[in-house]
Amino acid sequence: MTKWGMVIDLDKCTGCQACTTACAMENNTLPGENWQDVLYYSEGSYPTAKLTWLPRPCMQCENPSCVAVCPTRATYKDMDAGGIVFVDWNKCIGCKYCMIACPYGVRFYADEKPVVEPDVRDVFPGTGQLHAPPYQGPHDDAVRGIGIQPKGVVSKCTFCYHKVSQAPAGVADLDEDNPETKEFTPACVRTCPPKARYFGDLDNPESEVNRLIADQRGVRLKDHTGNRPQVYYLGSGADVPAYQPPKKS
Amino acid sequence: MNKGNILQGPMGLGLAVVSAIVALAAFGYAFMDLSAVGHRSFNTSSQIPWGQPIATYLYFALASSGLGMIAALSLVFGFKQFLPIAKRAIFLSFVILISGMAVLAMELGHVFRMLWVIPLNMQIESAMFWMGVFYVADLIFLLWKFQKMEGREWDSKTSKQIGIASFLAVLLASGNLALIFGMMSMRPFWFDGLMPIYFYLTAVASGLAAVVFFTYLAYGFNRDAMPERTRAMFEGPMGKLFAAVLGGTVLFIAVRAVTGLYTNNPEISVVWRDFLFASPVYQASLWLGIVAPFVIMLVKGLRSNPSMQVLVSMAVFAGLFAERYFFVVGGQVVPLFRGTWEWGLIQYTPSLTEWALTIMGSAMLFALYAAGERFLNLSDMPAEPAPEGATAAA
Predict the structure, then answer these.
(1) Would you call B40 and A94 a contact, using CB atoms and an 8 Å cutoff?
(2) Which residues of B touch A154 (CB under 8 A)?
(3) In a domain, B394, yes or no
(4) How many domains does chain A contain in total?
(5) What does the alpha-carbon distance between residue B328 and residue B325 come to, in Å, rounded to a whole number?
(6) Does chain A have fewer CB atoms within 10 Å around its N or its C terminus?
């Protein structure tokens, strides 16, 4: 069975935020929703000061702590969809317990929509697709949290499931350089200029992601939590420093 | 028996009406804001998803549980000295829980969806699912027990069984509420297997504050107007119980603070040092709202003094509210990843809408309570406690 995984090579990543932008464009995220973000850290002091950065998508954990806490089963891990963790927007009640339980801070609640607002279709009558909001993706799927986040629910990265799900069955890797898989590659992977991101099947021994994890000793973020992410990091910089309060000037 | 109860006259009606107006005004303000801009009117964010409305709910839910435990002292465990406040405690427990749930309802993204999604999906792995189950059971048993008391069924077998069931529901509900926080290993400030014990203790402390304050309020803060047995309870065991519970609370906060400050883990030690102890509000609430009341209740000459009892109850009200607020927010102020957007602790100050919800819940409690005093006989108690020998013989 397919188990989608991502590998991010921090020695290649330049922190350009192209992945963040591509994600926002692909998924129509609202302001405040950063399904994909790059976090910057400055560590140490002269003469050993360094600036590091960390791209952070949802880890799609093998043992996700957000799933068990959800009182409505709105958050679920779909093994038939490659082990991606989804939020069913038809079931989410906006209690935000999953946001508390996620150790990676990759769940978002951007409830800016008013309770009462005019229906755009009444304001601008016409024919054809005139949904509110005006843009609606052809693959919108509320059950998997794909589309524009409605009011009062939690949203998160879906590994671009609307693209990934269209990939040919049994494919080992989704690579933007391969014309056959280019269209099915997640937006952040496809857009990455230094090719720091790889996406493939962790259950397929032949996949490039497995080779990279094995050869370059891939690590998982905050592995002590037991969540076992399906996102691996290569290179230096995955050792996220512990929180320290900024020095008072 | 109730001659001195000023809330059974026009005062009660007046308090109920004024409180209801305040509650409605606060609800109106919050509803208008939520209608205009959604939950953006809260100052919570994806970094701090739970803010003051959750702290308010927690405070009310635990005060309700504490009141249930106080009622159980006489109704389940046979401490007859506390019988004079049993009915009032059961009623207060019910209305304070309703008020807390009203605040929670305004905080959730989809409150009406919750009504069908939770029972249809049965996610028994979630502590929040069990919170719903146990608090609904709690509400039902409280109401049932109160109905038995209204029928003056104090000692029937059914009444006793419902009393025991109610007490168990209270324990399960508040203990489970504690585990919602206590099981979150990714939030080390909360992660604690003994959290239910801490919640039980502080629940009884806030319950005592509520029942002392509201009983005095019913009698116009004049202890001489109280019925004989109620007065005897306030002169005798109440002060000692309050002292013991506050002592336990101080001890629990102290050990949490000591272990928190001692650890190297910044997600705990920084919270204690830079968020809790660095805040003048927390300092004031701790020393004036919990430690000073404990000291007052320790002094023999002061703990039975009516003015001191009222003062302590109000101080504990405020102190424990702040304690809940700093507990809920404190678990989230250290960013999960210190990065571009969060260099220091995450800043959070409740918005006016969030304050409006706290005021709404509090005013709702006053309105429902005053209506209860006005229309129900909350001071009711069995005529005389049966002598021990007579019970044994029977």
Answers:
(1) no
(2) 109
(3) no
(4) 1
(5) 5
(6) C
